[in-house]
Every structure is written in structure tokens, then in C-alpha cells.
Design brief:
The longest helix is centred in the N-terminal third of the chain and has 21 residues. By secondary structure, this protein is α+β, with helices and mostly antiparallel strands. The protein has one domain: Sandwich (Immunoglobulin-like), CATH 2.60.40.420. It contains 1 helix and 11 strands. The protein is globular and about 40 Å long. The chain starts with a helix and ends with a strand.
């Protein structure tokens, strides 16, 4: 009986060791997102040029510092799974048509850019893009 208990304990210890090797090294093993703050105002984005690394998670913090509503729109995000995060909101969505932020508001988008290239973003509200409210993101 004693040998059976010892064998069971060894087997359990072996299983735990194998499980530890298969799990991430820590609970927070996922790469922390690069945090980029984008300010919107009449009629500009700051910064207007973003550089992202393909495969590295990103959190865009979009803040409307202006006196009127603005939108953040990029064709790149339409087919890219992302998370929309707010104080009382956490939504996982298959893509984003546009993000409208009211004056004084903040929104957070989290995603992993995969496709490399240069992509335009802009404010899709009538006349805003034409007034110069656009920029680009470079994914390397």
C-alpha cells in the first residue's frame, strides 16, 4: 500500500511538472499592448502619423479635445478583430466602420495589426477630412 501511495504521488508530481511546462510562464505572459494616445480637435489628429509593429498588440486611446464630435475611421480596421473598451463597456467586434467620439470623450481600441503597409485614417464627418483631418498609420 505504501508503494502505491508513493507511486501515485510521483505520478501527480510528474503531471504537475508537465502542466507547468505547457502553461505560459506567468499569468500575464501576453505581450502588453503599445499604448498610443490620439487627440482629435478642429480639424486635426495629433499625432497624424503612427508607426505600429505587426503582431504586437496596440491600444489606441482616442480623445476628442475639440468642441464638436469627431470620428476615427480607417479602412484597415474594417476587417480586423478588435476590442472596444470604455469605463462601462468592453466589446469584442469583428471590425470597425468608424468610431465617433463626442467633445471631451475618450474611447479605447485594442487590436493586433497583422497586415504590413501604410494606411490612411481620417474623420469621416462631412467636411472634416477635406479640412485636413486625416493621418496615416505605418505597420512594419
Amino acid at each position: 500500500m505504501h508503494d502505491l501511495i508513493i507511486a501515485s504521488m510521483r505520478f501527480a508530481a510528474h503531471c504537475l511538472a508537465v502542466a507547468a511546462l505547457l502553461l505560459p510562464s506567468s499569468a500575464g505572459a501576453q505581450t502588453q499592448p503599445a499604448v498610443i494616445r490620439i487627440e482629435m480637435s478642429e480639424f486635426a489628429f495629433r499625432p497624424a502619423a503612427l508607426t505600429l509593429t505587426a503582431g504586437r498588440p496596440v491600444r489606441l486611446v482616442v480623445v476628442n479635445e475639440g468642441q464638436i464630435a469627431h470620428q476615427f475611421e480607417a479602412a484597415y480596421l474594417r476587417a480586423l478583430p478588435l476590442q472596444l473598451v470604455g469605463d462601462a463597456l468592453h466589446a469584442e467586434i469583428p471590425g470597425l466602420e468608424f468610431l465617433r467620439v463626442n467633445p471631451g470623450g475618450t474611447a479605447r481600441l485594442e487590436f493586433v495589426p497583422w497586415r504590413k503597409g501604410r494606411f490612411v485614417f481620417f474623420c469621416g464627418i462631412e467636411g472634416h477630412r477635406e479640412a485636413g483631418m486625416q493621418g496615416f498609420v505605418q505597420v512594419r
